[in-house]
Amino acid sequence: MTETRPPDRLPAPDGEPVVRMTGVVRVHGEGTGAVHALRRVSLDVAAGELVAVMGPSGSGKSTLLNLAGGLDRPTEGSVVLEGRELRDLSPKQLAELRRRSAGYVFQDLNLIPSLTVAENVALPRELDGVRTARARAEATAVLEEVGLADLGDRFPDDLSGGQRQRAAIARALVGRRRLLLADEPTGALDTRGGDEIIQVLRQRADAGAAVLLVTHEPRYAAWADRVVFLKDGRVVDSSAAGMETAR
Amino acid sequence: MSVRHGLLALLSRGPRYGYQLRAEFEASTATTWPLNIGQVYTTLSRLERDGLVSRDDQGGQDEQGRVRYAITAEGRDELDRWFAKPVSRADRPRNELVIKLAMAVTTPGVDVAAVIRAQRSATMRSLQELTRALRTLDASTEAAQRLVVDSMIFHAEAEQRWLDHCEAVLARPSEENP
Ligand SMILES: Nc1ncnc2c1ncn2[C@@H]1O[C@H](COP(=O)(O)OP(=O)(O)OP(=O)(O)O)[C@@H](O)[C@H]1O
Ligand SMILES: [Mg+2]
């Protein structure tokens, strides 16, 4: 695979988690219609760590992921991403930080229909200011990694659900962000396809990324170093893998 | 599955000594089903009694006086029947967890939610361990062994889903537990 990793991204600064959430509360709406999506949740994700979030529908998983990546701001509590307290950042600074630090796979994928798959995947790098040719080369490399090497010139609407899912994952992987956030990235995939994707995420964690994965599937959660169970906006349980931690 | 049929399957590949059967049995079940040598010989003598295996005259005994066994024609028929017949769910051992949860639900003073949570964490941990085991199997590992670990992963996964289901059902108010 091509060596396109910018030297300023990996590895982590000494021991600090890539993202640290402390006492995070998120209330949607106000008054009688207020929804307490998260109630005082604290969670760290370190470099090299894969953390899975499980829990019933509506338990706050996507909300947690959005907050961790700076796509949303907490009602109360603190989110520190790569050493920066998000509360202290202007909207512009926040946008800059999350673009630079985090790669996302959204639950609804969010691919741009008017761009080809390769263009979609190259886009985050173009926004990074990388030259088009190089952005394209990087896109080609990650498309290969997710098994879409031949489909870069297609448009998202011309892919199967599983292929679209892989394209969205490729877009999150490109540029090797320190934090990877994936909301049900295996949703439309069969077990073999899902296994392949989870292996890619695992490899990224092993290479030093912090990965936060939302999944309903115990078999994918089991690849994580830690599994956090959410219920009604609270962490009710967490299970760490074996004796030897991944760090 | 029965050890009986497992041994017949191994013998269908050619005559074998008891210690070989034990090693091959464990290898093909990824050591998830340890057998002691006593079990192997007890099973072999029952198979012999039933005419499904016989002492292999060609091979005779090895220098330590151990006997080699071979499958008989009846043994092959029995093995074919076994492969052809689906395993009945009723033949499998009862599941302690199911019994425990059923008892927890009906026994006053038991915190069922806590029982479920504790089990879910434990099951997730074993699922994590199995996944790690699978990850460390290298490419040369026999397909049979991989499939055995896969099976344990699917079982643990099903248990996890069932626990989620139990939690959701019990959280729902009903006439019985409003
Ligand atoms: N923008 C919003 N406005 C109002 N309520 C919201 C908003 N976003 C989420 N919620 C509510 O917050 C709660 C948590 O939602 P969230 O999307 O985090 O759940 P989830 O665990 O990801 O569920 P799922 O598994 O169905 O994706 C839900 O009750 C949801 O309806
Ligand atoms: Mg969600």
Automatic annotation (TrEMBL), chain B:
Protein's UniProt name: PadR family transcriptional regulator
* Top-level lineage group: Bacteria
Domain named Transcription regulator PadR N-terminal: which ranges? 7-80
* Transcription regulator PadR C-terminal domain: residues covered: 94-170
InterPro entries (alphabetical)? Tscrpt_reg_PadR_C, Tscrpt_reg_PadR_N, WH-like_DNA-bd_sf, WH_DNA-bd_sf
The record ties this protein, via Gene3D superfamilies, to: Winged helix-like DNA-binding domain superfamily/Winged helix DNA-binding domain
